[in-house]
TrEMBL record:
Taxonomic path: Eukaryota, Fungi, Fungi incertae sedis, Zoopagomycota, Kickxellomycotina
Example of a GO biological process term: lipid homeostasis
Subcellular location: Peroxisome
Positions of the Acyl-coenzyme A oxidase N-terminal domain: 28-143
Name this polypeptide is given: Acyl-coenzyme A oxidase
InterPro entries for the chain: ACOX_C_alpha1, Acyl-CoA_ox_N, Acyl-CoA_Oxase/DH_mid-dom, Acyl-CoA_Oxase/DH_mid-dom_sf, Acyl-CoA_oxidase, Acyl-CoA_oxidase_C, AcylCo_DH-like_C, AcylCoA_DH/ox_N_sf
Organism: Coemansia guatemalensis
Amino acid sequence: MQIPKGLEPMTPSTADALAAERSKSVFDVQEMNRFIVDDKMRTKIAKVEKVMAAEPEIFDVHNVYFMSRTEKMDHALKIGKRLIELMKAGAISADEISIADLVLDINGPFGLHRTMFIPTLENQGTAEQQERFLKPAQNYEILGCYAQTEIGHGSNVQGLETTCTFVPETDEFEVHMPNLRACKWWIGSLGVTATHAMVMAQLIVGGKSYGPNPVVVPIRSTADHMPLPGVTVGDLGPKFGFNTMDNGFLMLDRVRVPRSNLLQRYINVSREGRVTRPANVDPKVAYGTMVYVRTQIVSNMSQVLAKATTVAIRYTSMRRQFAGKADKPTERGAESPVLDYGMVQYRLIPLLAQNYAMFATSQAFSQHYTECMAELGRGNFGPLKELHATACGLKRWTSDAAIRGIDTCRHACGGHGFSQFSGLNEFYGNQYPNIIWEGDNYLLTQQTVRFLLKQIHALRAGKEVASNQTTQYLRRHLTAGRMAMVPPPQFVGRSIEALAQDPDAQLELLSFRAAAMASDLADQMEGGQTWNRSLVAMQRLCDAHSDYIVASYFRRHLSTLPAGSPLLPTLNKLASLLFLYVLEQHSSDLFRLPGRAAFSTAQVAEVERLLAEIIEDVREQAVPLVDAFGVSDMRLNSALARSDGKVYENYLQWAMEDPLNKDGSGPAIRKEWFKKYYEPVLHAADSKKLAKL
């Protein structure tokens, strides 16, 4: 099949429309890209894309939308194998393999080996264990996974039923799953790939339980890949998305491993069965891998949302529907760009502001994590609790924004958004697990709020609390842990327009909202309200806390620019837009602020008015702003958002490549179906006539 020749040119063409949008830019797109995207990430992405572009026969995922699950896994394994070869040849580094997964949206079967198995060995293994397990893992001589979730227990890690029992007679551990609930489930890289599993199991020594701890268990032979004795392992089958990953199940029937297979950097079991821990070790250090992965999720979500917003904003700026319906004038008879309609702007432009804030947050929080890990390495476990609470809150905030954002972008593309060629459908399914794994987002709020409540209780009891970004705002707004409003916060009595132009006042209001909600929840629970009855309020409190943390990180990042930077006017608009959007989305919180801080209906109406104005203003820079994300056509893998703007030409050409249409396969399939199905239906009457004869 080919596109018919001699067609009249489209006027205006989608390519011309995209070029016109780019011509509106009031800032240098490349300079914005250098500021908002982390230098290391940008450099790695460019390097990896160049390497992959040189081997399209391996890395082209153009046809992935036509593949079955088995074909997708086979293609992902081919890509993974080649990436490992390139790493060993020095063409890319080990951490750049994960960048390739991000670029291609192919989360292949080797993924959890890199993102969880290896980091757990790095963070919780002794030097001897790292020599024994980490080096072979880094060389891909063994392939690992992280087996924590069970079919009967996910979020409740303390409730895991897999046991790891010390057997002093043989100096071994016996790893066992006593019932079906203990079957490991949803474990990535387990279904067909892993030779070793990092199994989280209840450590039992001398009949006493020491809680969940990681132990390395060989599960398949490295010689022929067959399951080892006592091991039942397999793949879970097709899923809503993420189908290039072999999520699997695992049953262990009294499998014995050497005592040295228990990771013992933070807990030690001696030959005599004596259990010891290093001094001042926080038991939560065993969850260090989860904190690491949540940190990676926070970092990745900015890139994830950038792909979706790039597709939707580019496409809606080129797509035209109806003449004279939008407020902006067009050439006589010309239809308006879809992005000029207020409802489309309201859905997409706030996502841009969130996206820019997420890029800033990912850089700041990654630095925070690195500093905390350095402290842990020096034996200081003090910052771990605040890091864990912040990671939980930000994992929820960023993944919620990204996943809901992808769906919003998909919907904003109208009917064409439903096509796989939009690049948003399979992408949505592949990214959706981020709101569930490594802590369901609704449950993670409890971790963040538990930390907040503990700090308030300590302040009320007159105890010393560590100084960090959380306790600083609690102490600023609360007196001895209680809301007093003495002196009143600086935003009280000021107009919304003034607040929208004052970064310090914005942070003051967002932090005051979180402190007031935390104090109120503490009061309610001290008055007898149960934890279960408090869960809904905890969701709101966690969001309020994270709204402040994200806004603070965003403003902190903007403060690194010189005062006269040409980027600042647009970035300040985005930060103010995000502030107003948070207020508009959570207006009930504003009505309930204590005393003179409470908002009136007139103030909320003013928030809505100003938000609408700034959304219209930022819309003019929407295409340059998504261009600044630097998402390549390779990453987009979308017919609707090509950088050259040739949407409809590419869309039709892509459809013609469907096996049902493609020269060779298409006619053969249609001929077979005609004989088997269409002909008997179409000529049923003829068959009856012949039968009568």
